[in-house]
TrEMBL record:
GO molecular function: polygalacturonase activity
Broad class of where this protein is predominantly found: secreted
Similarity annotation: Belongs to the glycosyl hydrolase 28 family.
InterPro entries tied to this protein: GH28_Enzymes (IPR051801), Glyco_hydro_28 (IPR000743), PbH1 (IPR006626), Pectin_lyas_fold (IPR012334), Pectin_lyase_fold/virulence (IPR011050)
TM segment ranges: none
Protein name: Pectin lyase-like superfamily protein
Alphabetized UniProt keyword annotations: Cell wall, Glycosidase, Hydrolase, Secreted, Signal
Zinc in keyword set: no
Biological processes, Gene Ontology terms: carbohydrate metabolic process
Domain of life of the organism encoding this protein: Eukaryota
Compartments, as annotated in UniProt: Secreted, Cell wall
Signal peptide: 1-21
Length: 447
């Protein structure tokens, strides 16, 4: 890990701890939607022959340990302890009522033997693998139809060793869609906390068709040139809490999704009631994103207290013709960004299609987007809001936004089209399509 990142993480950890100490009982958190559960029954991976030498393959040990938890069904569940060491393994499933606990110095490391990686069916809201036709490789750590599952510890590491997958992507030799690092499907009551996630082959943490999910105090790291290594992607999920984390990856830090074109429309499961709070990070792509796969709809998203550095786009709301669905009631507030190519982007022409069967008349509806209290330094272009001619974006409300450009004689202007709404105290001034709220009364409830 680069020394500057170590220093930053140390400061970040101390800052969070200090804040907690001086404002006990006052720090706003959504984590209470899933209470942390203590397990009286505890087993160790060493009990099943696990060897943390970084060379021994521990797949049998992990699968037998999970099998034991699943079938003994201890009251209150069971904690699987991973002691210090490097535990090489193939992918494995979790089970309900378990805690996967990584001690300080513990590393669960994915094998780079891709030939035996299990294949699973594509998600119905995507209709195919996100990258390739057909199925997809199972996530490194996977859960389907589970409840009451915790992944936590003392900042141990889950390492996907993704470079072999990234190279397959670059060389166009992938047979199926790359595996995520951690995925929960059709699950509820999930907590992921106090773990470092490294080098995911594809998306890092992917809760899909799930509810009551808490992700906090995590660190997610991947090289800035690693393809599609999104940090956290809540997808067709509800009641999701994402807080107090550091993310530096090769793609969006957090991206809210809900299905892809005609498949997402048919599946019809929105993402809703999602809170994203106190996230710090950097990426050549987006800091906080909604989309572009939003065909099931996205609503009721709160984003606040975000710090972004060396970004492609700060805040990015993105969809496309053929997506259908809706994006509504999105609030983003208290954001600081520095060294950013574009501060704010709301666009209706982003993302590809699964096949040629998408309906070009399936137009997304975007309304009720509130962005306020955003400050940026060295922002090359302040923003763009470009809706669709036959489905303009409405109720766009900007207030108290200052996006300072790079040094030079003049800054780049906003770009707007097919949009309506209001702006107040925005610098540089956005565009004529956004009127003053004192003129129209539009969005006055948000100022």
């Amino acid at each position: 890990m680069p020394s500057f990142l170590v220093s930053f993480l140390l400061v970040f950890t101390i800052s969070v701890s200090f804040l907690s100490c001086i404002t006990v009982g006052e720090v706003v958190t959504c984590s209470g939607i899933v209470p942390m559960r203590l397990r009286n029954d505890k087993i160790s991976i060493a009990d099943f022959g696990g060897v943390g030498d970084g060379k021994t393959l521990n797949t049998k040990a992990f699968r037998e340990a999970v099998y034991r938890i699943q079938h003994l069904r201890r009251r209150g569940g069971t904690l699987l302890y991973i002691p210090p060491g490097v535990y090489l393994t193939e992918s494995f499933n979790l089970t309900s009522h378990m805690t996967l606990y990584l001690a300080r110095g513990a590393v669960i490391k994915a094998t780079q033997d891709t030939g035996n990686w299990p294949l699973i069916a594509p998600l119905p809201s995507y209709g195919r693998g996100r990258e390739r036709l057909g199925g997809r490789y199972m996530s490194f750590i996977h859960g389907d139809g589970l409840q009451d599952v915790i992944i936590t510890g003392e900042n141990g590491t889950i390492d996907g060793q993704g470079d072999v997958w990234w190279n397959m992507w670059r060389q166009r030799t992938l047979l199926f869609t790359r595996p995520n690092l951690v995925e929960f499907v059709n699950s509820r009551g999930i907590i992921i906390s106090n773990v470092i996630f490294r080098n995911s082959p594809f998306w890092n943490i992917h809760p899909v068709y799930s509810r009551n999910v808490v992700i906090r105090y995590v660190t997610i790291l991947a090289p800035l040139d690693s393809p599609n290594t999104d940090g956290i992607d809540p997808d067709s999920s509800s009641n999701v809490c994402i807080e107090d984390s550091y993310i530096s990856t090769g793609d969006d830090l957090v991206a809210v999704k809900s299905g892809w074109d005609e498949y997402g429309i048919a599946y019809g499961r929105p993402s809703s009631d999602i809170t994203i709070r106190r996230i710090t990070g950097s990426s050549p792509f987006s800091g906080i994103a909604v989309g572009s796969e939003t065909s099931g709809g996205v609503k009721n998203v709160l984003v606040e207290n975000i710090n972004l550095y060396n970004m492609g786009v700060g805040i990015h709301i993105k969809t496309n013709i053929g997506r259908g669905g809706f994006i509504k009631n999105i609030t983003v507030t208290d954001v600081y960004m520095e060294n950013v190519r574009k501060g704010i982007k709301i666009a209706g022409d982003v993302g590809d299609h699964p096949d040629e069967s998408f309906n070009p008349n399936a137009l997304p509806v975007v309304y009720g987007i509130t962005l306020k209290s955003i400050w940026g330094e060295n922002v090359q272009q302040p923003g763009s809001i470009q809706g669709l001619k036959n489905s303009p974006f409405t109720g766009i409300c900007l207030s108290n936004i200052n996006l300072h450009g790079v040094p030079g004689p003049r800054s780049s202007p906003w770009k707007c089209s097919d949009v309506s709404g209001s702006a107040l105290l925005v610098s540089p001034w956005p565009c004529s399509e956004l009127t003053s709220p004192h003129q129209t009364g539009s969005c006055s409830d948000h100022f």
